[in-house]
């Protein structure tokens, strides 16, 4: 009975350790997001409008 309990505790600690290591690596990963092409088009249109107003 005690052998089963000891083995179970060891398994719990190994799983807990692996979960902590995996979570730590996930938080240290650098996530990047591509810019939204629609937003860029909108900004380009605003810049064009500003240039036209300045040239008039």
Automatic annotation (TrEMBL):
Superkingdom field: Bacteria
Name of the protein described by the UniProt record: YtzI protein
């Amino acid at each position: 009975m005690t052998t089963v309990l000891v083995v179970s505790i060891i398994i719990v600690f190994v799983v807990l350790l692996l979960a902590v290591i995996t979570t730590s690596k996930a938080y240290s990963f650098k996530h990047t997001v591509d810019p939204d092409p629609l937003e860029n088009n909108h900004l380009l249109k605003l810049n064009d409008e500003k240039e036209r107003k300045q040239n008039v």
